[in-house]
Amino acid sequence: MKDARPALRYAKAILSLAKENGVETQVNDDMKLIVETLISSDDLQTMLKSPVTKAEDKKKVLVALFGEKVNTITKGLFNLLHENKRMLMLDSVAKQYAVIYNSDKNIQTATVTTAVAITDALEHKIQNKIVEITGNSATIKNIVNPNIIGGFILRVGDVQYDASISNQFNELRREFDNSHYIPQI
């Protein structure tokens, strides 16, 4: 977390530049792509963290990997991090950008915990329900937890709605524990 402050400063600068050019949404998509790529590639993370690999080589790998896929502002971030010897901060900057972009656009993050992964159709229905409830759209993060057995747990900001089967079982258990029912033998 020692990189949190500088990463936030870089992210704010990139967002400001992207807003001036009207491409903040494209840059946000680029940042999501960077984070997803880093999460899925241990080799790329190792290369970026390696003190043996030259900063110039790290930049070349990033440009080769993301070159045609990302906006020129994102490519400029690669150059800026290279010049300031902060290539290791790329992941932190990308994550911070997403946070301040969502804040700037009034987009909340909704966490949906389900027993199985949600489909695109279900995600669309959840998005509509979130807009209906809160008045704002939200990015949906799906967490798969088979322990909830079925149903879902939706959390948007400080509000949580638990419609899981495991929660219903727990409520039944509490109800039976609190009742003074004495079974006849």
TrEMBL record:
HAMAP family: ATP_synth_delta_bact. It is a peripheral membrane protein. This is ATP synthase subunit delta. It is found in: Cell membrane; Membrane. It holds the Pfam family OSCP. PANTHER family: ATP SYNTHASE DELTA CHAIN. F(1)F(0) ATP synthase produces ATP from ADP in the presence of a proton or sodium gradient. F-type ATPases consist of two structural domains, F(1) containing the extramembraneous catalytic core and F(0) containing the membrane proton channel, linked together by a central stalk and a peripheral stalk. During catalysis, ATP synthesis in the catalytic domain of F(1) is coupled via a rotary mechanism of the central stalk subunits to proton translocation. This protein is part of the stalk that links CF(0) to CF(1). It either transmits conformational changes from CF(0) to CF(1) or is implicated in proton conduction. GO terms for molecular function: proton-transporting ATP synthase activity, rotational mechanism. Keywords: ATP synthesis, Cell membrane, CF(1), Hydrogen ion transport, Ion transport, Membrane, Transport. InterPro entries: ATP_synth_OSCP/delta_N_sf (IPR026015), ATPase_OSCP/dsu (IPR000711). GO terms for cellular component: plasma membrane; proton-transporting ATP synthase complex. The keyword Membrane applies. The gene is atpH. Coiled coil: none annotated. Belongs to the ATPase delta chain family.
